[in-house]
Amino acid sequence: MSVINDNKKRAVIILSGGLDSTTCMGLAKEAGYDLYPISFDYGQRHKIELDNAKQVAEHYGVSRRHKIIKLDFLRDFGGSALTDDSIDVPNVMNGESEESEIPVTYVPGRNLLFLSIATSYAEVTGSEAIYIGVNALDYSGYPDCRPEFIHKVEEVIALATKVGVEGKGITIQTPLIDWTKAKIIEEGLKIGVPYELTTSCYNGKAEACGVCDSCRLRLKGFEEAGSKDPIPYL
Fold first, then answer.
1. Is 82 annotated as a binding residue?
2. In which domain of life is the source organism classified (predicted)?
3. How far, in Å, CA of 75 to CA of 123, rounded?
4. Which of 12, 104, 134, 208 could in theory staple to 201 by disulfide, Cβ–Cβ 3.0 to 4.6 A?
């Protein structure tokens, strides 16, 4: 793909196929951006989410722009319950929780890598923004979901890119960063975000487990938003 130069407003969306990133997709569309989704196959336990990401991209009519990037080395490194089969995903039914410390589902360097690659895609597509569904309330133990991390990456982008040196820049948009899960869902429902096409379960089955922390937060969010989660659960 050659570098695109015209006056259209574009944004790269880091699209996992989950609830938060799909909400970002909807919000970016509402903000008037042409959408350029990018997803990552990093050997995640819940690789089924990539199928959901494809469906979301198709829903928004941007399948041809959707990039899926392989990062197999993250599974080779391990060190996370999402990439290392020797580490179990915490299960609330067993009295396990991730709320008191950095969770075992934290993938070392994941968002740093994602944002670096998304920056490259943004520069090539002439995108002025990157949307990422980080949240500092739910899973606040993730160090790469904090506002200060995002601000520092923006500074690096300004120094490390041609558009940054030329003074045009690429911003990182984090519209969900201080929203509760219920507010995310409420705002998404207002703009028709297709939550039936998403998944949040860390166990990667066709039916969500309902007991991992990600499922628990999602179900709690739908309940507080006064809506029924449209995906199937065991």
1. no
2. Bacteria
3. 28
4. 208
| Identity at 80, one-letter amino acid code | S
- Annotated ligand binding at 79? The verdict is no
Is 93 annotated to bind ligand? no
Check whether 19 is labelled as a binding-site residue: yes
Residue 16 labelled as part of a binding site: yes
Q: Per residue in 94-131, pLDDT tens?
A: 445 555 578 899 999 999 999 999 999 999 999 999 99
22 marked as binding residue: yes
Whether residue 199 contacts residue 52, with contact meaning beta carbons closer than 8 Å, is answered with: yes
Q: Which backbone phi and psi does 154 adopt, to 5 degrees?
A: -60, -40
SS3 assignment, position 234 = coil
- Stretch 77-94: mean pLDDT: 85
- Residue 119 annotated as binding site: no
Is 161 annotated in some ligand binding site?
no
